[in-house]
Amino acid sequence: MKKSVLLVQAFIITVVISWGCQKPLSTSVQSSSKNSSTGAPEFHQRGGLPNFFQKINEGQDAKVAYFGGSITEAGDGWRSLTFNWLRINYPHTPFTEINAAIGGTGSNLGVFRLERDVLAQKPDLVFVEFAVNDFGRTTQQIQQSMEGIVRKIWKANPTTDICFVYTVAENVLPDLLAGKFQASAQAMEAIAEHYQIPSIHMGVEVARLYKEGKLVFTGKPDENPGKIVFTTDKTHPLSRSGHPIYASVVRGHFEEMQRVSGAKPHALPTPLVADNWEGAQLISLSELPSSAHWQKLPAENELARSVSKFMPALYKASSPDAVLRIKFKGTTLGFYDVVGPGVGILDVTLDGDKKEVQRFDQYSHYYRKFSFYLEGLPDTTHEVTIHVSGKAFDKASILQKRNIKIDDPSRYAETSWYLSNLLLVGTLEFIQWN
Q1: Rounded (10°) angle between helices 183-195 and 139-156
Q2: pTM
Q3: Are the C-beta atoms of residues 196 and 159 closer than 8 Å to each other?
Q4: CA-wise closest residue to 184 among 220, 218, 135
């Protein structure tokens, strides 16, 4: 009985994805791009995914990694739809899914966590989706981290294939309607072209349907009968209507790329960005001696348990006496931490210059994985000191920006810091806490 139910579910998924694909597929293997009625190219095949499809053709085990933000992390979204499509359409290939997506994070964190969260599981294909969360970063910053991701993957295994996928939020929809990619995707395309990585812009189809009056980008389904409502919050696709569009686009171009297969290791050309982050390091704090002011949260702690998939160790500092001192040579130092109701302000001193870093924000009514950086530094030796300030501030007014009210003041009483790892582009010379 269970087997019959699974087969029915698989059939439904196939029908949903097929129904969402509105356009005829190209029949040209050499086709490098595909334009929609908006004028923006939806697909660039470039080098394709030859090693991945070679494995499929031979019926070998194939591991598919999904590396991105909340749009990729979403359950019942484009990730699960495309993965199930692969399983259904290539039944002789045993597939393994690697869900390495973290909501609200971009490629600047991705490049540091890549080895632990993705490469350790030896993927055969890596989807990289950071265009929405990289919004607001400069072209230089985006290319530093995205090129670092590419070079790390191919240094670990030159036969791992990569596919860049771009998503869209309402704030960049005008770009697609004008026939161009948003700035973050444009920056990523330069990396894709340099390394001949295929890229799929899933938002182009959304823009086409919007332009033709068939889709409402942001709205309520019950208020828009007869139309596709893509999202209710300007960014995250609805599982019933938005994500199937994304999945149908990926499916269609997979069918194009499957025509090219073969063992073709990827060579690493000269970097496009000389100071890319291929040397980015995720540094553990586990070897530091115990401190009275830094507590490693036990595995059974509710917060520690909730983030343990990506943060095996989480440290809490609450007292103003909690200090972290770091000396390093390099250009970037970051902090992989958790923000939420019980966090506060840090006093950060970099090479003698002091500033406050606010870890509580308008989304901090729940705990989430996050990061911040001291970057763009000269490639010299730097000294950093961080104090947990303990300073009181008005959390209610910050949350009010999103019309969120504090329902339980005790959840917000602390002004702590939850730190998991250091993020470094450079060489660590000294670290101490007390």
Answers
A1: 40
A2: 0.91
A3: no
A4: 135
